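Dear colleagues,

As part of the handover before I leave the project, I'm documenting each prediction I ran so the next person doesn't have to rerun anything. This entry is a single chain, and its sequence is reproduced below.
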Amino acid sequence: MKRHLKVVMILLTASALPLIAQVAAIGITLEKNGQQVLIPLDEWVAVSNANDPGDIFHGINLGTSVDALRILEKGESYERDVPLDEIGSIFRGKIKSTKEYVWDGIKLGGLVSVGIGSFITAISLKDSGLDMEVLPSILLFGGLWTVISGIYTIPAGALIGYIRAQVAKGNVEEYVIGDGEWVILR
C-alpha cells in the first residue's frame, strides 16, 4: 500500500510541475490595493534602481527568478538579473532614449536628402540623353542638391525624432515599487 501511495504522489507531483511552470512563464504580476497588473514576457520594460534612479536597464522582460527580474538588454546576448529588492520602478511600453529617437530622425533626414539628390541626378541624366561628357557635372549637380537639401531635411528629421520621443514618453506606464506602492508578486 505504501509503495502505491509513493507512486501516486510522484505522479501527482510530476503532473503538477508543468502547471507551476506555466504560471511562472506568464510574466510579472504587480499588485497595489487589490488591483493586479500583468506585464507579459517578451514585452519591453525599463527598470530603475531604487538606490540610484538614474541607473536604468532597458530590455525584454524574461520573467523572474527566485530573487531577481531577468532582462535581455538591447544589443546584448546575455541576460541581466536585477535583484527584486533593488527595483525602484518598472516602466512598461516600447522605451528608447530621446537620443535614439533623434538619431533615427537624423538618419531618416539623411536618407531623404540622398533620395532628393539621386532623383535630381537621374532626371538630369535623362534630360541630357545619357551624354557621358556632361556626366561629371551632372553628378556634381546632384551631389550639391544632396548637400543643400540635407541642410533642411536632417534638422527636420532630428525634430521629428524629438517629437516622437516626447509622444513615446506619454505612452509609457510607470509602476513605482515599494511599501504602499506596487508590489511584485512571486
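The radius of gyration is 27 Å. The helical segments are 2-24, 98-127, 135-170.

All the best with the project,
I.
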